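<instruction>
Derive structure tokens from the sequence
<data>
Labelled lines for chain and fold
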Amino acid sequence: MATVILPDNDFHTNVDDQYPEIFCLIWLDAGANAEDVRDTEQKLRSIINCLKKFQDLKQCQKYIEERSQNERVVMIVSGSLGREIVPSIHKLRQVISIYVYCMDKESNKKWAAKFAKVKAVVVKLDELIARIKDDHKIQKMVEEPLSINIFTTSTGPVPLRASSTDIQPNAKWAQNGVTVAGGNGSGSGINQLSLPWGLYVGDDQTIYVADTSNSRILEWKYSATNGKVVAGGNGEGNGAHQLNSPRDVIIDKDSDSLIISDRGNNRVVRWPRRNGTSGEIIFSNIAYVGLTMDENGSLYVVDEGKHEVRRYKTGDTQEIVVAGGNGKGNCLDKLSNILYVFVDRDHSVYVSDCGNHRVMKWEEGAKQGIVVAGGQGYGNSLTQLSYPYGVVVDQLGTVYVADYWNDRVMRWAKGATQGSVIAGGNGSGSQSNQLNRPIGLSFDRYGNLYVVDQYNHRIQKFSIE
């Protein structure tokens, strides 16, 4: 077969970088046709400048083996050729990631699971591009520490679940999400979730998710196909080694521990993040749901039963009500069936006031809140929310909210009277552009959006464009 090879002078210098491009993207596919994939090639070149195509396996393998160990090869391969070449090149230092682009995802996932460098098995070109783009951001940080940073990063401490990269007012996210955890039906396997609720995304893009119906917390490493039980997982119960329908989880970096809202046991527990076998009760006998923490280590908890958010400050023996606390209602000083909470740099508290179909902001020390999203009753117009759950706020004060009953994620600019849909909103379903009861939200450090797609038993990632 003819081999399509780009000339060596295609080994460009990255225009965003003063240092030579060390990455090369190699595409091996016996059926690759320049006409069919021209648009895809352009998109891939915008990620990694050096792109080389092969149709012959032996020539491709020879080319890879002759690369310097200081170079980094990212590879796309068809399913049939992947079975042959991956075992031969997998141990080469210069090969850092492999993506299998095929028609039969399930059969190729079986052999690919044996090789850690296979980051994804995909059947759609847009998913392939999104995965390579996201992975390459991490690869550049690891391999090119002297690169010019092309992102504008926020100054000062970054609130939990927020992006450390400033999100621009006109930012857009991919309309098709990529499943990064679960998505294999409801179940208790380590590659499954069952009606998950809250999540936390670490600096390295490791995902921690409250796998509610399995009464456990799962950790999903970046690009992993399986999760790992890091808390609970010993059956539903109230023992120190058990959880009961956990609703939220965050990381306390100072103590290197998980803090878990153990809703079925009406308690909050601290669980060692590494090799922990049991948890320590922090608070009990309260209907806790959402959790967050500020830069001072103060813990904010949602008490669904009392319709209030309380702050537990390090060193203090008495908690402080920072939102609500005036009983159930729809006045500005009341809340109704609240679920999730976010705290910004100014210690303003944002809470999803689920029963009132709105998001409220309570500035530090305020006696009443301000409606910052929804508040126009139950409905599906752009001025309305229907049972909002997860909430995150960016550096501009833009509110992002999981509009649970409308199967969408909405963005409300500061001071806006209506929002816009940034994910989902295409009816309830399981397609990559659909959600089915979105519940938990988080950004990663780059501004990519993660959504707990509850009834699809998966976590969807929507990459920022």
